[in-house]
Design goal:
This protein is mainly beta and about 100 residues long. It has a single domain, classed as Thrombin, subunit H, CATH 2.40.10. Helix content is about 15%, strand content about 50%. It is built from one helix and six strands, in the order ββββββα. A hairpin with a 4-residue loop joins β4 and β5. The radius of gyration is 13 Å and the shape is globular.
């Protein structure tokens, strides 16, 4: 099950961007939050916990490898937790930069 906010080791940021999964799933979804250790995504189809995944973010500019930790049905979609193979602080900095770019001035 997911950890509470106080139990998390890294900051989780709201993201809301399109992601693309490659073999074995070959699907697309929306990343709703991301941290240096993982991401939460919404998908149309379920994934199996334990599956290794390859995920493209930032319109294919970054590829991240991880493992499906959990998958829960929710209102006709699936909420999926992905744990990254390695901590990726560069992704966190890219998200921060992206958020700064779209922030109203």
């Amino acid at each position: 099950m997911t950890k509470s906010i106080k139990d998390r080791q890294t900051e989780r940021m709201v993201f809301g961007e399109h992601v693309k999964f490659h073999a074995p799933h070959n699907c697309e979804g929306i990343c709703h939050d991301i941290s240096a250790k993982g991401m939460g995504v919404t998908l149309k189809n379920p994934m199996t916990p334990g599956d290794m995944v390859e995920v493209e973010v930032f319109e294919g500019k970054v590829t991240i490898f991880g493992v499906v930790r959990w998958c829960l049905p929710q209102n006709g979609t699936y909420q999926v937790g992905i744990l990254f193979k390695d901590e990726d602080w560069a992704v966190v900095e890219m998200v921060r930069g992206f958020q700064e770019e779209i922030k109203p001035k």
